[in-house]
Amino acid sequence: MASLPELSYRELVSLLRRFCQELRGEGSPVIVGKTRSGKSFTVHHHPGHAVYPEKLAKILKYAEISREQFWEWFRGA
Fold first, then answer.
1. Which terminal CB of the chain, N or C, has fewer other CB atoms within 10 Å?
2. Global pTM?
3. Domain contains 24
4. How many Å apart are CA 71 and CA 5, to the nearest integer?
């Protein structure tokens, strides 16, 4: 499968809004979310910085978003 792309902070928030049932802290360096299964997770990322592929991979794991789901969202965004 293709390697993950770099995302902007705004794209990251859009992704998390799409796949999480709850999201707080949008626009701040700390985003707290709840996965669809109810598990909480925290993302520390400055709004002015890009989200690099390595960090995106970790965020997908914590947010319980599969790579297939990510690519569907990414290609449709």
1. N
2. 0.91
3. yes
4. 10
